[in-house]
Specification:
Length: 432
């Protein structure tokens, strides 16, 4: 008798303990840090500094082994990090650029490159996705402590241990304090839980229940409308794709309808920007507040379109700026110029360029992993969408860029890529 080869599960691929520890470090609160000169050294920043040289080694290894395929985000996201340093140096001077924006640039480049190079196979990407989702679910459950105690309980505990105290002010909605758990802001907690829920739809059932429960808990306790709406869009997109997987042009149809809708609104609505912001805001008050902020900073962006105003207030006194700017794209354009915002925008969009109109190699990417690739694509789209009313930093920024890196990594295995041989026709392989 001939023994049949044992089927290897999709998620049974070894991921180094370094990757696991890095995933855990991402969600540790800022209070779990120490001072090093003028910098706050979080555990995540320590990992970034240690892993940055290894990323270069892993990247060279991918190229040397013929397993690298160029993805647009490989260029644009590192360029965005470099531009952060250049624009800050042009406005605030070289010293401030190295001290302040240098670490900001690393926090943009490193998560993407870590995912892009360390997770060098579809199975490793699938396994790391499960680790990230499990970690986010735990963070979501910890948000219950904030709601029950009426304060930022988890962060206060870390603050008591390290002695680092942030001036946190409770944000109440519906009579409840909005939970942050270990994350920097309630809306950022909601955002990472939103992405975890979408990704969990691709995981084995033995993990899915726990991840759904924890992520839904964090999402609803954050009481943030944009992530809740994003979750609904993401789950609908997954169901729509599953139901019509054999129908060609299913996503071209959706894109056409959306373009018609946007065109009509732009043509007939007296205030189209307000209309679209109203779709993602919790109520009229938060929508008007965001419009007020955008109107406030737009003149500064127009007057400083290339390098922005920097981060020290040398161009515009800090007192003349809003204390918060709830938009990834406005915030990047204000601080680092319009080029910085465009590089990040097209960098996120470009991480999906490895499979635009192509098919994954069936021999290297399983049906489950192709579905994961689609979920990663949806999460990147949601990050761009939610970014209109959310500025990403800290935990959320790291997870968004990790997801972009993982999506680009799976793009390596498209038919015709450097590592792929010709594959058979497979209707599940085509992504929008």
């Amino acid at each position: 008798q001939v023994a049949l080869p044992k089927r290897v599960a999709v998620y049974e691929s070894p991921v180094s303990m370094v990757a696991v520890l890095y995933a855990i470090s991402i969600v540790l609160p800022e209070e779990a840090s120490f001072s090093l000169g003028n910098l706050r050294m979080t555990i995540t920043r320590i990992f970034i500094l240690l892993l940055a040289p290894l990323c270069i080694f892993w990247f060279v290894k991918l190229i040397g082994e013929g397993r690298y395929k160029f993805i647009l985000s490989d260029l644009l996201i590192p360029l965005c990090g470099i531009w952060i340093v250049i624009s800050t140096a042009a406005v605030d001077g070289f010293e401030d650029s190295i001290k302040s924006s240098g670490i900001n640039a690393l926090e943009v480049i490193a998560p993407y490159l870590i995912a892009r190079t360390m997770l060098d196979s579809p199975k490793k990407i699938a396994t790391f996705t499960r680790i990230i989702c499990m970690t986010v679910a735990i963070v979501g459950f910890l948000g219950i402590l904030d709601t029950l105690t009426g304060r930022f309980f988890v962060r206060d505990v870390f603050s008591a241990v390290t002695g680092y105290q942030k001036n946190l002010v409770g944000d109440y909605r519906l009579g409840l304090v909005r939970a942050t758990s270990t994350v920097e802001h309630p809306i950022l907690l909601g955002t990472i839980c939103m992405m975890s829920i979408v990704l969990a739809t691709t995981l084995p059932s033995r993990w899915r229940t726990f991840i759904f429960a924890g992520s839904l808990t964090g999402l609803f306790l954050s009481i943030s409308s944009a992530p809740i709406g994003g979750m609904a869009i993401g789950l609908f997109a997954m169901k729509y794709n599953d139901a019509l997987i054999l129908v060609k042009g299913r996503w071209q149809f959706v894109v056409t309808i959306l373009l018609i809708f946007v065109t009509v609104v732009l043509a007939i609505h007296p205030n189209p920007r307000g209309f679209f912001i109203g779709l993602v805001a919790l109520n009229a008050e938060t929508a008007y507040y965001r419009l007020f902020l955008f109107d406030w900073v737009e003149p500064f962006i127009r007057d400083n379109p290339i390098f922005g105003i920097g981060i020290r207030g040398n161009v515009i006194p800090i007192s003349q700026l809003p204390t918060t700017l709830d938009s990834e794209w406005y915030a990047l354009a204000l601080s680092y110029g319009i080029p910085g915002a465009l590089m990040m925008f097209f960098g996120l969009v470009g991480c999906c360029s490895g499979n635009m109109g192509g098919k994954f190699d069936r021999g290297q990417v399983s049906a489950e992993q192709r579905r994961l690739a689609f979920a990663l694509t949806i999460c990147v789209g949601l990050a761009v969408y939610v970014g209109t009313t959310v500025f990403y930093w800290g935990v959320a920024q790291s997870i968004v860029l990790l997801i972009a890196g993982m999506r680009a990594g799976i793009g390596n295995y498209e038919d015709g890529g450097a590592t792929v041989s010709a594959s058979r026709s497979d209707p599940m392989g085509r992504l929008p």
